[in-house]
Amino acid sequence: MVEVLETVAGHGGELVLRQDGDAFEVIENGVFLMDTRGGESERLLVNGAADRLAPGARMLIGGLGVGFSLRAALDHPDVGEVVVVEREPAVIAWNRTGPLRTVHSDALADPRVTVVEADLVTWLRSTGEAFDALCLDIDNGPEWTVTEGNAELYAPTGLGRLVRLLRPGGVLAVWSAGAAPAFTERLRERFASVEVVPVPVPRGEPDVVWFAR
Ligand SMILES: C[S@@+](CC[C@H](N)C(=O)[O-])C[C@H]1O[C@@H](n2cnc3c(N)ncnc32)[C@H](O)[C@@H]1O
Fold first, then answer.
1. Residue 194 is part of a domain; what is its CATH number?
2. What's the mean pLDDT in 14-42?
3. How large is the C-alpha radius of gyration of the chain?
4. 130 lies in a domain?
5. In a domain, 26, yes or no
6. Tell me, what's the pLDDT at 129?
7. Domain range spanning residue 192?
8. Pick from 193, 199, 51, 96: which is nearest to 59 by CA?
9. Is the pLDDT of residue 30 over 90?
10. pLDDT tens for residues 147-177?
11. Measured from the CA of 135, which atom of ligand 1 is nearest?
């Protein structure tokens, strides 16, 4: 039986945390955002980026969700520090002190983690920070954003801002619930190497992770 644990007004619309047996689900604006059942591609997003870097990497994770990507980053031997940018205070609270805390063994309490409560698209316009890896999973994909404003991230303007945040040799990793050939082309216009990695899922189109450097 599915139980609604909390419903709040979020920046991207109504945000619901549900429990279905052992699994938790996050729904935003009626659109399924994330659950705690799988997580393979969310882990690949950060592991694939960290595997391409030297030890001690400084990583940005865009979108906390249920913390699968964050947990994978902290478990990777080459990640030294992680900054998570998440715009929904409720998502941060569910992960910090609420039911999602058990999903990632209290990852937010790890001293290597800083959580920034902000809209990533807005934050990118003014931050002067630099990273070895930018791991982005705030939407269902470049062509299926959860809110209209997020589309800027995958457009030339947003990609230009991301490139400026990357240290030399750094990696941009982006998650999607499906292929997005036009986005691949935009990445190829800016990066020397673009890898598109499909990740099979139990039903439907594979997830896709891009690694660009
Ligand atoms: C699909 S979930 C991320 C899943 C995550 N990779 C994991 O392992 O659980 C997307 C997250 O991005 C957040 N988000 C969406 N748009 C955002 C934005 N513009 N800025 C910051 N966070 C955003 C959502 O609130 C949600 O927590």
1. 3.40.50.150
2. 93
3. 16
4. yes
5. no
6. 96
7. 38-212
8. 51
9. no
10. 899 999 999 999 999 999 999 999 999 999 9
11. 6
Probe residue for ligand 1, chosen from 34, 46, 82 as the CB with the greatest number of ligand atoms within 8 Å? 34
| Residue in the block written with tokens 């990777």 | 76
- Find the 135 Cα to ligand 1 centroid distance in Å: 11
Q: Quick check: is 198 in a domain?
A: yes
Domains in the chain: how many in total?
1
Length of the chain, please?
Answer: 213
Residue 67 lies in a domain: yes
78 pocket-lining for ligand 1 (C-beta < 6 Å) = no
- In tens, the pLDDT along 109-138 reads 999 999 999 999 999 999 999 999 999 999
CA distance 101 to 36: 12
CB of 86 closer than 6 angstroms to any ligand 1 atom? yes
| CA dist., res. 180 & res. 142, Å (int) | 7
- Mean pLDDT for 77-86 is 98
Residue 113 sits at φ, ψ, to 5 deg, of -105, 135
Q: What is the pLDDT of residues 198-207, one digit of tens each?
A: 999 988 999 9
Ligand 1 nearest atom to the CA of residue 45, by list position: 6
Reading the block at residue 119, the tokens are 């809209």
Mean pLDDT (whole number) for 15-38: 93
Q: Using most ligand atoms within 8 A of CB, pick from 26, 100, 138 the residue to mutate for ligand 1.
A: 138
The answer, yes or no, to whether any atom of ligand 1 lies below 6 A from the CB of 131, is no
